[in-house]
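Quick one: structure tokens for this chain, please?
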Amino acid sequence: MRFSEGIDQTIFLSRERDDARHFRQGCCWIAADAVTYAWFPANFDEYQFCEEGLVRVNVEDAAGQRIVLEAAPGEHIYLPAGFHYELEATGVPTRFLFSSGPSARRGISASEYSAQLIALRGK
């Protein structure tokens, strides 16, 4: 599944595909020149573990304060709900594992995203 040009993911575990009640897990690939992807997780936390390359996430809080988080291979980043995030290319191919939770009810997230996961289930 594509987040933006050069940022793709695969889901290993989800409510839509596996009836997982508490979290979602997968892997994300970022091309060296990927287009930045922004999201706002209002109701779930996320954890990212860098396997290769360099993960860079720009973070903005409700007051507009910004910081940059980075994780090299073997390092992780914790992204709690309620902040604005941007996943940014770093000039090197990057791969990270992620887990997020709690999982929303089936179909409550972006409907197109949920439909793709349900279609992958094969039912």
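Helices lie at 15-18, 111-121.
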